[in-house]
Amino acid sequence: MKDIKSHIDEAWQVRQEHSSRIWFSVPGVKHYQNRYYTNHPHSFVNLSVTGSACACRCAHCGGKLLQNMIPTTRPEDMFRIVDHLATRGCRGILVSGGADSGGEVPLLPFVDAIKYAKDCGLRVLVHSGIIRPETAAGLKEAGVDQVLMDIIGDETTIHSVYHLPGKPEEYLAAMFTCVEHGLKIAPHVVIGLHYGEILGEMRALEMIQAAGPEILVLVVLTPLDGTDMYGITPPSLAEVVEVMAAARLQNPNIPVSLGCARPAGRYKREVEKMAVDCGFNVVAYPDETTVDYARCRGLTPVFTEECCSLAGRQEILNS
Asked: Who contacts 70 (Cβ-Cβ below 8 Å, separation ≥6)?
């Protein structure tokens, strides 16, 4: 524990080079309300270009996450939904969907609709999976703000959890494909992705560091009811904080965010507190006690209804 504590202390010192603000991301895709802040419905919305369909049916998701997104399976659907959202005060969208057998979300047919969303003044993020150069070129032309992708650092996890035949190097190549096309990337690491075990997380962090993104997002395995992993024990708090501290220390000059996914209850509160201690710049949907704790550590809370990968990014990069 002494080594972990020293890493946490070092991570906190890295954070002192950044603004004293800590961003709490509460996009309207999920209701959030406490004595600090109440968000607005439809401020940020998730769309799925495949509806509930996904060829991979990953062991931790099984397509369940897609069921909470607005289906836009045809480009004309997306045009219509964008018009509707713009009239309701929407500020941004995440365009996601199920992956095909190669691990890519089929975004290319939707680039004109994505460009239309940008022309309407929306921030647009896309969740790409493994991405081809032609898709990256189309997304760049459409003007997307960020490309989100899960980065997996272990081949066994790719096979057994994502049900794909690939290798970690393909995820590194996907990041470089985006960078080479001038796209901003927000790589995500799922801590405990391999059935609650820590297996490829450190390798994933190494690949992300090599790609040089402008933000890094960490989440914690949260097995969903009805999936192959339901009932799996999440990684221990000690294991989670070790990955968190490493993420902060390896990426001292960019924002590091704790994203939406983590088990509920006391576990959630402890993970959020550890994120503060490790010098994270952003926490999504924080517990009220987390806001209290951040203030006690001398940080200034700033609530935003943008996705956590956008929150505070420009200020931190300019500091």
From this structure: 45, 46, 47, 48, 81
